[in-house]
Amino acid sequence: MKSRTEIGVVGPCAAGKTTLTAALKKHGISAKPIAQEHSYVPDMWRRVTNPRWLIFLDASYPVTVQRRRLDWSYREYEEEQHRLRHARQHADLVIYTDSMTPSDVLVAVVRFLDSQNH
Question: What's the CATH architecture for 7-116?
Fold first, then answer.
C-alpha cells in the first residue's frame, strides 16, 4: 500500500515549493512539491499525492521573475494562477512568500503543523 504524503506543496513557479519541501524532508516530514501549475486537471494535486495537508505558497509576478530570472509574461503567470485555483481553495495553509526567507516559510509551516497536532 502506498504511504500517504504528509505535506503537498503547490504554488506558482518560483514561490518556493522545492526549497520548502527539501527543508521539511530534512526535518523528517514527508513532503512533495506538486507541479499543479502546469496541469489543466484542477485536482491533480489530489490525484498525485492526496496529502494530509496541502500548503499553497504564493508569490507575486515581479518576485517570481526576480527569484528565478524567469522569462515569462504576466499572462503566463496569470494562467498558472488560474490552474492553481482549485488547490488554493482546498489549501490548509496559504503563505505569501514575497517578503519571507526560506527559513521564515519553514517556521510558518512547522508552526501550522504543531497547531494541528494539539
Answer: 3-Layer(aba) Sandwich (3.40)
* Placement of cell 490548509 in the chain: 92
Angle (nearest 5°) at CA 98 between 93 and 100: 75
What is the reported pLDDT for 1? 36
- The C-alpha R_g of the chain, in whole angstroms, comes to 14
Strand pairing category for 93-96 and 7-10:
unpaired
Instruction: Give the side-chain half-sphere CA count within 13 A for 117.
Output: 7
Its pTM surpasses 0.85: yes
Q: Looking at residue 18, what is its pLDDT?
A: 95
